[in-house]
Amino acid sequence: MFFEDWEGIIRVVIISLCIYPLLIFMLRISGKRTLSKMNMFDFIITIALGSTVATILLNEEVTYAEGVAALAMLIILQFIVTSLSVRVSAVNRMIKAEPRLLYYDGNFNIEAMKKERINKDEIKQAVRTNGQPSLHHVKAVVLETDGSLSVIQGEEEGEALKDVKK
């Protein structure tokens, strides 16, 4: 149906005007981590927040107070889990993928590339994006926990590569 009545539209407008500033406030107090580059855990939280806001706006059976409680719980749980992940390595391993070495010292790690579903062209693109004219100038390419590709230059292996899964 295209239009039922003005009451539903007015409700959406009023709830939007209330929930939007509240969401900004809650995200602001939860810290920069909530809005950082997304790893899998961050992606899930972002989807959950979006779904919750949509439900608050469009489902008349969900009261504003219930919606605020749901948003607050998601943000509080996200804050607790990320705080624990900084302090407890087991929690960190549960919620984050490990970085993966895809290219090292002139060799593509084909097994890792297949597992991560990355092809040579994507690695070459990351090298170009990093301003390198060829793979000969690159020591390593790492698939990071947020899905980005890091390009490491230089002759020696640095300490930044020591915790990367090969």
TrEMBL record:
<dbReference type="InterPro" id="IPR007353">
    <property type="entry name" value="DUF421"/>
</dbReference>
<keyword id="KW-1003">Cell membrane</keyword>
<protein>
    <submittedName>
        <fullName>DUF421 domain-containing protein</fullName>
    </submittedName>
</protein>
<feature type="domain" description="YetF C-terminal">
    <location>
        <begin position="88"/>
        <end position="158"/>
    </location>
</feature>
<keyword id="KW-1133">Transmembrane helix</keyword>
<feature type="transmembrane region" description="Helical">
    <location>
        <begin position="39"/>
        <end position="58"/>
    </location>
</feature>
<feature type="transmembrane region" description="Helical">
    <location>
        <begin position="6"/>
        <end position="27"/>
    </location>
</feature>
<comment type="similarity">
    <text>Belongs to the UPF0702 family.</text>
</comment>
<keyword id="KW-0812">Transmembrane</keyword>
<dbReference type="InterPro" id="IPR023090">
    <property type="entry name" value="UPF0702_alpha/beta_dom_sf"/>
</dbReference>
<dbReference type="Pfam" id="PF20730">
    <property type="entry name" value="YetF_N"/>
</dbReference>
<feature type="domain" description="YetF-like N-terminal transmembrane">
    <location>
        <begin position="22"/>
        <end position="81"/>
    </location>
</feature>
<keyword id="KW-0472">Membrane</keyword>
<dbReference type="Pfam" id="PF04239">
    <property type="entry name" value="DUF421"/>
</dbReference>
<feature type="transmembrane region" description="Helical">
    <location>
        <begin position="64"/>
        <end position="86"/>
    </location>
</feature>
<dbReference type="InterPro" id="IPR048454">
    <property type="entry name" value="YetF_N"/>
</dbReference>
